[in-house]
């Protein structure tokens, strides 16, 4: 088997177990991965439009809309005024920021556990490689 084939096979073999375990940990906080991805984006990048979020997550806008609606119902996100009234701009509420920080502790522990034995330079190199691959995919 070619190295590239092994690489992508390992990537595929990594994805489902990671997502399943991530969802297990998020369930402790009554969240799932799609919601967590939005929390992460808003916490790290600030307010965003639905279009921004759909591009960031590489999913369709209706998918983001459903997830945002649920997060609004829970009081974790809110709409804020935008220069374009047709545009929905979303940000974390104070409750959302608090929940993000609580969940972040759980996820930090999970991530640290699964990265045991991988040095920081190796992690940084992998981050760089994954970024290049993503850029090549979405060209």
Please give a structural write-up:
- 71% of the residues lie in helices and 7% in strands.
- By secondary structure, the protein is mostly helical.
- It has one domain (24-138): Arc Repressor Mutant, subunit A (Orthogonal Bundle), CATH 1.10.10.
- The radius of gyration is 17 Å and the shape is globular.
Total beta strands: 3
**Side-by-side strand order of the widest sheet:** 1-3-2
For CATH, the homologous superfamily is named as Winged helix-like DNA-binding domain superfamily/Winged helix DNA-binding domain
Helix content: over 70%
Architecture in CATH? Orthogonal Bundle
Q: Give the overall form.
A: globular
**What is the succession of H and E elements?**
HHEHHEEHH
Task: For the record, give the distance between the C-alpha atoms at the N and C termini, rounded to a whole number.
Answer: 27 Å
What is the CATH topology descriptor?
Arc Repressor Mutant, subunit A
| Proportion of strand residues | 5-15%
What CATH first level would be assigned?
A: Mainly Alpha
Number of helices: 6
Find the structural class using helix and strand composition: mainly alpha
> Biggest β-sheet, characterized?
3 strands, antiparallel
């Amino acid at each position: 088997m070619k190295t590239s084939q092994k690489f992508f096979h390992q990537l595929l073999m990594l994805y489902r177990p990671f997502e399943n375990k991530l969802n297990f940990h998020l369930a402790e906080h009554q969240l799932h991965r799609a919601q967590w991805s939005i929390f992460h984006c808003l916490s790290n990048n600030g307010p965003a439009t639905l279009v921004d979020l759909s591009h960031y997550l590489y999913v369709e806008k209706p998918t983001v809309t459903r997830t945002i609606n649920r997060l609004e119902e829970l009081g974790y996100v809110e709409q804020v005024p935008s220069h374009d009234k047709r545009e929905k701009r979303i940000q974390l509420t104070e409750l959302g920021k608090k929940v993000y920080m609580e969940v972040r502790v759980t996820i930090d522990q999970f991530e640290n556990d699964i990265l045991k034995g991988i040095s920081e330079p190796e992690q940084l190199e992998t981050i760089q490689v994954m970024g290049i691959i993503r850029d090549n995919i979405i060209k």
